[in-house]
Amino acid sequence: MLRDEASRRVAEEEIRHVLSAYTAAMQARDVERVADLVGYPFDMGAGYQISAWSGFTSRMSHDFRKYVVEIDQLSHQLVDIDVTEDQAVAQVYESGRYIGDYRERITLDADLVMTFRKVDGEWKISGIDSDSWVSLTFRRRASTGRIYGW
């Protein structure tokens, strides 16, 4: 935890800005903007990591083309955050709606654990762990290689 309250508030505000930019980029389905907000390696949970920007954009572009037709609404609310000098763990509430690949409407209502770290002086998202579509989009079952969730 940051000892200086003013430093903690500044870090929290910067992280809120990254979270807001992430939400806007996801809603716009802008893969490159999302990828620019991420620090690599990126931890998708369940032991799955993406090591570089190019791998992230490739995986996410594929998943948007294959699994998500449209994102109607998306919001992320910062519930709680623990910030140190160069890392943070945030509890985030995610809600929204999207249209899946079979034109089905899917409602999001999930609690995320998002990790952030400083990369070259800027906060980046370094991991998302959840049962929501955001993290499940990228995960693969090790035994089958199939995408699940989303």
Query: Per DSSP, what share of the residues sits in E-state strands of 2 or more residues?
Result: 35-45%
Number of helices: 4
H/E element sequence: HHEEHEEEEH
What CATH calls the topology is Nuclear Transport Factor 2, Chain: A
Helical proportion?
25-40%
How many domains is the backbone divided into? Answer: 1
**What are the segments in which pLDDT stays under 50 over at least 5 consecutive residues?**
133-150
What is the alpha-carbon Rg in Å? Answer: 15 Å
Sequence of strands across the biggest β-sheet: 2-1-6-5-4-3
Give the termini distance in whole angstroms. 34 Å
The strand count comes to: 6
Walk me through what this model shows.
The protein is 32% helix and 41% strand. By secondary structure, it is an alpha+beta fold. It has one domain (5-136): Nuclear Transport Factor 2, Chain: A (Roll). It is globular, with a radius of gyration of 15 Å. Residues 133-150 have low confidence and may be disordered.
Tag the structure with descriptive keywords.
150 residues, alpha+beta, Nuclear Transport Factor 2, Chain: A, six-stranded mixed β-sheet, 32% helix, disordered C terminus
Task: Lay out the secondary structure.
Blueprint: H1 5-27, H2 31-36, E1 38-43, E2 49-50, H3 53-67, E3 68-83, E4 87-100, E5 105-119, E6 122-129, H4 133-136
Parallel strand pairs: 1-6
Antiparallel strand pairs: 1-2, 3-4, 4-5, 5-6
